[in-house]
Amino acid sequence: MEYAIELKGISKSFGPVAANKNINLSLAKGEILALLGENGSGKTTLMNMLSGIYMPDSGSIIMDGKKVSISSPEDSAKLGIGMVHQHFKLVERFTALENIRIGMRGEGRIFHGADVRKKIEDTAAKFGFDIDLDKVVANMAVSEKQTLEILKVLCYGAKIIILDEPTAVLTVQEIDKLFAVLRKMKEEGHSIIIITHKLNEVMAISDRVAVLRHGDYIGTVVTKETDEKTLTELMVGRKITLNIDRPIIEKTHPLLEIRDLTVKNDEGAIAVDHINFYIRGGEILGVAGIAGSGQKELCEAIAGLRKIEDGQMIHEGESIVGMSPKKILDHGISMSFIPEDRLGMGLAPSLSITDNMILKNYNEAKGIFVDRKSAREEAQKVIDKLEIITPSTETPVRRLSGGNVQKVLLGREIKSGPNVLITAYPVRGLDINSSYTIYNILNDEKKKGVGILFVGEDLDVMLSLCDKIMVICHGKLQGVVNSDHTTKEDIGLMMTGTLNIVNKEGKTDGIAKDSAITDEEGKA
Q1: Is the pLDDT of residue 452 over 90?
Q2: What is the pLDDT of residue 335?
Q3: Do 212 and 21 contact (CB within 8 A), yes or no?
Q4: Are the CB atoms for 33 and 210 separated by under 8 Å?
């Protein structure tokens, strides 16, 4: 086997924490290699050493039989290595063409616009990219931005391409298009490393799979000779079930009813456009949609964090429109909100786990002093129940892994005993073990009669976990489907606006009949 690049004995530490320990990894020419591992296993750190963001403490990087040194992103680019990061590196105010031009190397290229455009158009046509080079990035959908990032590194001459969680916010149809492009790149001799937590995608796109665990290299297997169960065991070091339970609970009356809700985004445009739905106790209602379809604004409006323009929000027969988050709590409305941005909005990263627990109910303290002893005990209960890995209750939240941060946030919310739980992307970026812990927690709350709104992006997970799925596109309701009687292909079509099962009267036709406040039990 001829290798495009080899890593031998690569180690990298940050203070006392060893992120990578003596890693040996190889990428063959013209292959797609999947890189798997739990959160904190060292995947991104390892790839950041190939992209020039970090330098290894020890070990060698071999290309074409020669040892190379990568001390900067420029060194990486000169060697033909390009990385598409999970968070895109684009200038929002520039067009697609301008974003590519600013990084192009070579005498005269950056000044001859016609030549640059021709080169980019030829590259796009070669790999089947569909992109408007004159479109401003700020006006692009997520899938368009990702296409631009991949096209950009190809135009820079990359032969080794690293993709970090490339399908995180794509629809089923967009993932299929991306994989078609990756296969075309492979045919043209490019070597690709894809970091993903989605095992079904690993099985569909990769030739081999390399696994890291706690910074150690576990091994590499041929994809067609393995399965999802085996890969999971390699990742976590023990057997784990891949089934997501969906307990059947007797539904109560609607706890939360949303009627003709209209909400604007930060720019003043309509983000949620006359949406109707309800959540009953003992059920999980999923929300599916392309990123930016109004999910964030919907959650914030329900939690009292965003003003609504029109419509009603009724919690157990009482309107909560216009109430502040604190007033909602003061009125005894037990509603908890787990935001999409868990560190920026959900938690105070510099504070300890104990102090983050206090933030929810500090105003209940009698007198001027906060009872830290009780808070510390509550924090320890959450740590024990959710198996949070932390040195102590006094550890700053920012020092925890993504999965443990999410557990802290979820634990704080459920300990207050809500009867409606709003969750936005609760497993985004989490490894499979942490994700299943979150699913189990949500199911435990469902069994208690809690109504749960689950905003997600993995359609396979949503179909397994949620009782019903509400699909929105550009802020409009496309329909509410029963998870047992639909497919992710149908949901993907609804997410893009191609399929709409809501008729003019606001009722749902076809796939599901129990849509938003249209049947008898959904009426006030």
Answers
A1: yes
A2: 55
A3: no
A4: yes
Could you report the per-residue pLDDT of 360-381, keeping only the tens digit for each?
665 555 556 667 788 888 889 8
- Between CA 135 and CA 144, with CA 138 as vertex, the angle to 5 degrees is 60
H or E stretch covering 47: helix 43-50
For residue 306, what is the DSSP state? Answer: S
- Rounded to an integer, what distance in angstroms lies between the CA atom of residue 125 and that of residue 84? 20
Q: Strands of 182-215 (E only): list them.
A: 191-195, 208-213
* CA 405 – CA 418 distance, rounded (Å): 20
| Structure confidence at residue 518 as a pLDDT band (50, 70, 90) | very low
Using CA atoms, how far apart are residues 8 and 64, in angstroms rounded to an integer?
14
Question: Which H or E element spans position 263?
Answer: strand 254-264
Q: How many helices (H) and strands (E) does the chain have?
A: 16, 20
Q: Are 13 and 7 in contact, with CB atoms under 8 Å apart?
A: no
For residue 47, give the amino acid letter.
Answer: M
- Spatial CA neighbour of 423 closest among 335, 356, 488, 352: 335
Instruction: Give φ, ψ of 480 to 5 degrees.
Output: -120, 125
**Integer Cα distance of 83 and 164 in angstroms:** 8
